[in-house]
Design a protein that fits this description.
The complex is a heterodimer of chains A (314) and B (174). Chain A is an alpha+beta fold and 314 residues long. Chain A has helices at 3-11, 25-35, 42-71, 137-164, 245-250, 277-285, 306-313; strands spanning 85-94, 97-105, 122-130, 174-186, 191-199, 202-210, 213-221, 224-226, 236-243, 264-271, 290-295, 303-304. In chain A, helix 4 (137-164) crosses helix 6 (277-285). Chain B has 174 residues and is mostly helical. Chain B has helices at residues 4-14, 18-40, 43-59, 70-88, 110-125, 128-139, 144-151, 155-173. In chain B, helix 4 runs antiparallel to helix 6.
Chain lengths: 314, 174
């Protein structure tokens, strides 16, 4: 089963119920709401509208920050995470686009063109950037490196997850995590963080205190196992928590400032997790302003998209 | 980003306007129902979970963050409820191949139908979390970032789950 054909099969294998929803579905929902005692939610509406009013400039500001982050030197602060390198390898003009070459070390980027890891030591990735794009070659390289770091971080988190699940307390109750967090306070039983949470295409900052840490908390940095005492104020971390009772239900909110952390227990702390700004931007622009391509002979440009590549092979 | 009409409907719903909320329910009910069905594989349960999703969403609407698409938030609630349903009824789940249909207009040709049947069974056998990711990405059209929001996980984890799910499917279909 080749990647492309599997993708195609999955797209067209949407399992749907034989019968549709009951025609009374919406009425039943509304009927249920009508039976409940009404309470004034005017304050919520005001809060919602107020949030919208203050959110818009916040988004604009965050977007500017993100642009600066990928275009400037601030990103260098996290360069080299886990030994990952990404360097500009050249540019080639083709019709209505340019091909940017990125040479990497210790990197695997998950995509249709390289779903399985090839040579992680040294890999070359090619990106076709449309002419209308304002993205610079340096930004393409930095976004590719961000994607490398995200992928490596994911692999490590897989390993940790396997270990995490050995504890029955963690099974089915590990409900969330915070990435891109700065430790603002920590002791043997609690930890406070300032966390950058991806919100749509931008990132917002939240402060959160977790009053409980599992005695068996898994602490690590890259492949290295650490102790909780190795975590200090100012460290850049990602953490995962389990929840129960109301806190589990509260996890349904996607406003971290509204989550009650009193019934949440920190179970994993990863030190020096990579900044995700560049990876978020990779996801934002991928497929819109650039696309990964691979060398091939069937296209005049010398490079094929995943679709072209697999259609020529099959 | 939300359109003005939807934001107004949400604001009215927050003020107790059930008609406004009914319009939102009508807008997303099928997508939520299909997604729940993809996870629990039982029509009655999927409809119950979809109904619970919209009731829960109504009472928690003040917690909704309008920086996200409303559908993303609804998928998050529905996914939690569907996975929770599977945990509670772990020993009662039974699957019936006859309940599966492909979408109208997407019927595979005869040469591919065997592959589709195989894939149905392989997807059905995946872990619930993997099924959820497959449903959200391939059938509901969410991006990896949106799925990360739905699943309360880093994007890298979502990519990893997808990678793992597809590796299992490839092995089953090889």
């Amino acid at each position: 089963m080749k990647e492309k054909s599997l993708d195609e099969l999955l797209k067209h294998t949407h399992t749907t119920p034989r019968h549709g929803l009951s025609v009374e579905f919406t009425n039943r929902v509304i009927h249920h709401l009508n039976r409940q005692p009404q309470q004034s939610r005017l304050s919520y509406m005001k809060e919602f509208l107020q949030m919208k009013l203050i959110t818009k400039p916040a988004i604009a500001l965050a977007t500017v920050v993100a642009c600066v982050a990928i275009g400037g030197t601030s990103y260098a602060a996290v360069g080299g995470w886990n030994g990952i390198q990404a360097l500009f390898g050249g540019e080639k003009k083709v019709d209505n686009a340019r091909i940017v070459t990125v040479n990497t070390q210790n990197c695997t980027i998950t995509s249709a063109l390289n779903i399985t890891s090839k040579d992680k030591q040294q890999s070359t990735y090619y990106y076709k950037v449309i002419n209308d794009s304002k993205l610079t070659n340096d930004q393409i390289v930095q976004m590719a490196r961000g994607e490398c770091e995200d992928s490596a971080n994911s692999q490590t988190s897989f390993d940790v997850t396997s270990e995490l699940n050995k504890n029955p307390l963690n099974q089915d109750t590990v409900v969330g995590d915070y990435t891109d967090s700065l430790v603002t306070a920590v002791n043997s039983s609690s930890i406070s963080i300032e966390s950058d949470v991806p919100t749509g295409d931008t990132i917002k900052t939240f402060n959160q205190t977790f009053p409980h840490i599992d005695p068996q908390v898994i602490v690590y940095s890259g492949a290295q196992r650490l102790a909780l005492s190795d975590i200090h104020v100012g460290d850049h971390v990602a953490l995962s928590y389990r929840a129960s009772g109301d806190a589990l239900r509260n996890s349904e909110t996607i406003r971290p400032d509204k989550v009650d952390t009193s019934a949440q227990v920190v179970v994993v702390i990863a030190k020096n997790s990579p900044d995700r700004t560049a990876a978020v931007n990779y996801q934002k622009y991928n497929g819109k302003e650039f696309e990964q391509v691979t060398p091939c002979s069937t296209d005049a440009s010398g490079f094929c998209t995943a679709e072209q590549y697999y259609s020529q092979k099959h | 980003m939300q359109n003005k009409d939807e934001l107004e409907l949400i604001a009215h719903s927050l003020n107790g306007d059930h008609i406004a909320y009914g319009i939102l329910v009508d807008r997303y009910k099928n997508a939520i129902f299909y997604h729940c069905f993809a996870i629990v594989h039982d029509e009655a349960s999927a409809e119950d979970i979809a109904q619970e999703t919209f009731i829960t969403a109504y009472y928690k609407l003040h917690l909704y963050n309008a920086d996200y698409r409303l559908s993303t938030w609804l998928f998050k609630i529905a996914t939690n409820k569907a996975l929770d349903n599977l945990r509670k009824h772990r020993h009662e789940i039974k699957t019936d191949d006859s309940i599966f249909d492909t979408l109208p207009g997407k019927q595979p040709g005869p040469d591919k139908s065997a592959h589709y049947d195989e894939l149905h069974r392989a997807v059905e056998a995946l872990a619930p979390k993997h099924r959820a990711v497959i449903s959200l990405y391939y059938w509901q059209g969410l991006s990896y970032n949106e799925i990360a929001t739905v699943m309360s996980a880093p994007v890298g984890s979502v990519q990893g789950w997808m990678h793992r799910a597809k590796a299992i499917l490839r092995k089953e279909l090889s």
